[in-house]
Amino acid sequence: MNKGIYIATLEPNSGKSIVSLGLMRTLLGKTAKVGYFRPIIDDSKNTSKDNHISTVISFFDIDLDYEDAYAFTSSEIIKKRNKGRSGEILDTIITKYKNLEDRFDFVLVEGSDFTGEGSIFEFDTNVLIAKNLGLPVILVGSGVGKTEDELLGSMQIAYTTFLDKDVSVLAVVANKVQEENLLIAKEGLSKFLPDTVEVFAIPFTEKLAHPTIKEIVAELDGKVLFGSDFLDNQTGNFGVGAMQLRNYLTHLKEDSLVITPGDRADIILGALQANISTNYPRISGIILTGGLIPEEPILKLIQGLSQIVPIVSVNDGTFSVTNRVGSIKSQIYANSKPKIDTSLTVFAKEVSFDKLIERFINLEPKGITPRMFQYGLMKRARTAKKHIVMPEGTDERILSAAVQLVELDIVKITLLGDLEKVKEKAVQYSIPLDLSKIDIIDPVKSEHFEDYVETFYELRKHKNVNCDIAKDWMADVSYFGTMMIYKGHADGMVSGAAHTTQHTIRPALQFIKTKPGVSVVSSVFFMCLEDRVSVFGDCAINPNPSATELAEIAISSAESSLAFGIEPKIAMLSYSSGTSGKGADVDRVREATAIVKKERPDLKIEGPIQYDAAVDAAVGKSKLPDSEVAGQASVLIFPDLNTGNNTYKAVQRETGALAIGPMLQGLNKPVNDLSRGCTVEDIFNTVIITAIQAQGL
């Protein structure tokens, strides 16, 4: 079930706040707990907090700390990009959003504002964030200063961009459209949008466009002389009081802002008197220019009036002040109740999201992005913290990954090796090793060493293993770590950074053994591509599997796929698709496919099939039009190790995909092998999937 929605815009000053406020009220009418999140906020100029967040939290009384409602300021984003740390941005955004998703029934996410130095990147950034959060989008665009073609064209481009990235667009809102053009805008949008996308148009509303007195004071650095309790007064239009009073009064309109030099007592007093007269419209405030303050008798007269509007003194001249007031981009503040009420009223009149909400609450995100997959792995690992042993305790990469894992409280870690050598290595590479959080065991000094030796002897004496041989083997870190799992002193093992695959797996095959009904230990990689996660198997263990073994690898891989939240659609890869190919290799794949269909009719499988037909929708439809797997395969089974190993490495290198694994499947307890060229991230991810495997036992 989808638990969030993302409001995105095309440009600055689109007025998306009106949509946020209206949608929040709609959601709160349907569920008690609605959260609010802004991935990126502007750097605040005049206050310490983002106005959008403060307004929503305050007005709707949301139980949410300010710091939890955003991830980064725009300047922080720029700094991280400049330092090559862009990956951290999405990680943090996903984590903070998921925390809110756990707390609330639904979360409203509001995109960035397109202001400041990094605004050129913001549209693409919002697309990327929405995709990685797996959220459908409401798209908002402004009609200010645009022709009909310009408005519709920009909205169509934006919609297509989201669609191309597999982000669902639920509604498109044309905002700030002239009243007489509302129907034209809606009809124009409907021409290129499917019926599943709701279309709305909201009129330009002067009350929302004009700033409050508070905003003007902040912009002009003014000094409030009177009426500080009324700074939230909403201005209408504004005019300069430079003519004689009798002429100026005829220019007053509702909520006019009076701008006049501070020594024009006639204009000041005349405007205040007009404000309390039933014959003239109300004014919102008075700006006194030139740094001039009325004389004392005038000030006393003002103080004695029964109704006082804000009167503000500024240092700039009248011409400068008028221009600056005209350029203020108004916002909605927490205590701007008139603006909020206006926004909600206009929204309720022009927009109805009730049916839309009922439809999209059950909307599933399309696919799964790598960062979504990784976040899900960490979350699952934390649900039941497992104990993972890592035999290569003096490897710098192992140490770094272990420290990260325990700091995030994902797993319990035991490193194998000589304590002093491990500590020495940590100091050498400035790794903050905390011995209160990570256990370090030297196998031959362990209190369990003799018991492990005796156990190994009993298990392997039929293979002519005596006690001395058992002792030698148990001094080996791979054998010791595997025995920890066998004896229940650890839940899983990750090794291979400094050892061969054979060295890692052999002890597991000797006494952990395979699961009942499983004869083949195989492996899979979780290939985290730009827009999906695919399962590749077997790319690490079996050189030339038979048809029966290939079928078993496919079934094991499908079960692994399911265990990690990926719907298995199995493609049995070959150099031929369908029935056209001939030869021993393609016949073996065809036979393996038939075995899977017979043993597991519940699984979706296609084979033999070529790689492009398996993953490309157009090619798949062309070659196998009736297949429910072609073009959308999530589990790809390679016919041999040569093909599988080279393909996964080619995909990884050429596309920049993250390859998590190999994860071994078929063993009674989880043991996973690392490549000797592995990175800290590889180790980190492999430990997490090992912990999740252990949860399923």
Structure description:
With 697 residues, the protein is of the alpha/beta class. Among the domains are: 4-207 and 338-366, Rossmann fold, CATH 3.40.50; 211-329, HprK N-terminal domain-like (Udp-n-acetylmuramoylalanyl-d-glutamate--2,6- Diaminopimelate Ligase, Chain: A, domain 1). The protein has a seven-stranded parallel sheet with strand order 3-2-4-1-5-6-7, with helices on both faces. The protein has a six-stranded mixed sheet with strand order 20-19-21-18-17-22, sandwiched between helices. Strands 8-12-11-10-9 form a five-stranded mixed sheet, sandwiched between helices. Helix 17 (396-407) links the parallel strand 13 and strand 14. Helix 1 packs across helix 14 (337-350), helix 17 crosses helix 28 and helix 19 (449-460) crosses helix 20 (467-474). The protein is elongated, with a radius of gyration of 33 Å. The relative contact order is 0.08. The mean pLDDT is 86.
In terms of topology, how is this protein built?
Blueprint: E1 4-9, H1 16-28, E2 34-41, H2 51-59, E3 70-73, H3 74-82, H4 86-103, E4 106-110, H5 122-133, E5 137-142, H6 148-164, E6 169-177, H7 182-192, E7 198-203, H8 206-209, H9 213-220, E8 223-226, E9 238-240, H10 245-248, E10 256-261, H11 265-275, E11 283-289, H12 296-303, E12 311-313, H13 318-326, H14 337-350, H15 354-360, H16 370-383, E13 387-390, H17 396-407, E14 412-416, H18 419-428, E15 438-441, H19 449-460, H20 467-474, H21 477-486, E16 492-495, H22 501-512, E17 522-528, E18 533-537, H23 547-563, E19 569-573, H24 584-599, E20 604-609, H25 611-615, H26 617-623, E21 635-637, H27 641-655, E22 658-665, E23 671-673, H28 680-695
Parallel strand pairs: 1-4, 1-5, 2-3, 2-4, 5-6, 6-7, 9-10, 10-11, 11-12, 13-14, 13-16, 14-15, 16-23, 18-21, 19-20, 19-21
Antiparallel strand pairs: 8-12, 17-18, 17-22
Helix pairs in contact: 1-14, 6-7, 16-28, 17-28, 19-20, 21-22, 23-24
